[in-house]
């Protein structure tokens, strides 16, 4: 369940910000057709911060329904309130999610002991596989490898999405918990190298627009074929960079709209992709061989 190229899927929206469920169905089919190995539904790339609880759970439910057990669906259920995270996790399980992804509590700046207790309480409250998510650049909270090692012994905690951008950190995690947790890169630009080093794959933003290539690159890395993995990844490097020219998922949603898969809808406080960056994303799509209008 926790290997390969797993897409951190965007949540398509109409011009007024309403969730576009028709476009969501098209996106999921796009991933089913192009080899994506799993879907993270309503993670932070899915604008979880601006979906209300009912929308959040409905998007997960629709994703589970459309995926129809062909690939796993991991629901983003993290929150900076432990009780809220438990409630989201419980409801995601109720609508059929295969697992849940839980970002570290943001803004609160919990201690390492607070992080341990937060995740332990969620794991005890809801019996579903849990993947931890460490992304200090967006949360102002960095879960240390020693804390991850403690959590690896908690029943129900099965994986970690690590997004510090550091290969040194990733190698340390491999040595400490690589035999206990499914380690997944949260950084597209080092996903292939992380997988070659011992990670099991990636939870990817780039896979939103280049699912086949991301699947192939990670599959080659998992098969121990570094030359092929790096060759494919070389075509994706411009996308890894340009999809973060503004806050994720702004560039990815703009690119998907150009690909005809959804409209341009996005919710405040995120705003439409600035025009001065359009050419760079277009060039990156061309380098990756992706068709667009």
Distance between the ends? 34 Å
Specify Rg, calculated over alpha carbons.
18 Å
CATH arch. level architecture: Alpha-Beta Barrel
**What's the main sheet like?**
8 strands, parallel, barrel
Strand content: 5-15%
Keywords: Amino-acid biosynthesis, Cytoplasm, Diaminopimelate biosynthesis, Lyase, Lysine biosynthesis, Schiff base
EC number: 4.3.3.7
Pathway: Amino-acid biosynthesis; L-lysine biosynthesis via DAP pathway; (S)-tetrahydrodipicolinate from L-aspartate: step 3/4
Binding site for pyruvate: 45, 203
Helix-strand layout with pairing:
Elements lengths: L3 E5 L12 H13 L4 E4 L11 H15 L5 E4 L5 H13 L4 E5 L8 H14 L4 E5 L1 H4 L5 H7 L5 E6 L4 H11 L4 E4 L5 H7 L3 E4 L6 H12 L3 H17 L7 H9 L19 H10 L6
Parallel strand pairs: 1-2, 1-8, 2-3, 3-4, 4-5, 5-6, 6-7, 7-8
Helix pairs in contact: 1-2, 3-4, 4-6, 6-7, 8-9, 9-10, 10-12
GO biological process, one term: diaminopimelate biosynthetic process
Organism: Povalibacter uvarum
Enzyme class: lyase
């Amino acid at each position: 369940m926790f290997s390969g190229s797993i897409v951190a899927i965007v949540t398509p929206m109409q011009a007024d910000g309403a969730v576009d469920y028709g476009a969501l169905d098209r996106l999921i089919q796009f991933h089913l057709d192009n080899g994506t190995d799993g879907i993270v539904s309503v993670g932070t790339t899915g604008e979880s911060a601006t979906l209300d609880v009912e929308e959040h759970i409905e998007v997960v439910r629709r994703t589970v329904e459309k995926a129809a057990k062909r690939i796993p669906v991991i629901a983003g259920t993290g929150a900076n309130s432990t009780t809220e995270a438990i409630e989201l996790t419980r409801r995601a399980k109720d609508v059929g999610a295969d697992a849940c992804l839980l970002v570290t509590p943001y803004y609160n700046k919990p201690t390492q002991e607070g992080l341990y207790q937060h995740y332990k309480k969620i794991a005890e409250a809801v019996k579903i596989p849990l993947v931890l998510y460490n992304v200090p650049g967006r949360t102002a909270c960095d879960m240390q490898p020693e804390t991850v090692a403690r959590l690896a012994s908690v029943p129900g905690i099965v994986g970690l999405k690590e997004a510090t951008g550091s290969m040194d950190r990733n190698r340390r995690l491999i040595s400490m918990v690589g035999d206990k947790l499914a380690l997944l890169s949260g950084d597209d630009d080092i996903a292939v190298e992380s997988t070659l080093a011992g990670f099991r794959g990636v939870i990817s933003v780039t896979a939103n627009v280049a699912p086949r290539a991301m699947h192939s690159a990670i599959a080659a890395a998992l098969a121990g074929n570094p030359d092929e993995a790096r060759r494919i990844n070389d075509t994706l490097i411009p996308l890894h960079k340009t999809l973060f020219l503004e806050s994720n998922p702004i560039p990815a949603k703009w690119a998907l709209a150009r690909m005809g898969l959804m409209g341009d809808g996005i919710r405040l406080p995120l705003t439409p992709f600035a025009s001065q960056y359009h050419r760079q994303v277009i060039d990156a799509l061309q380098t990756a061989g992706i068709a667009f209008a």
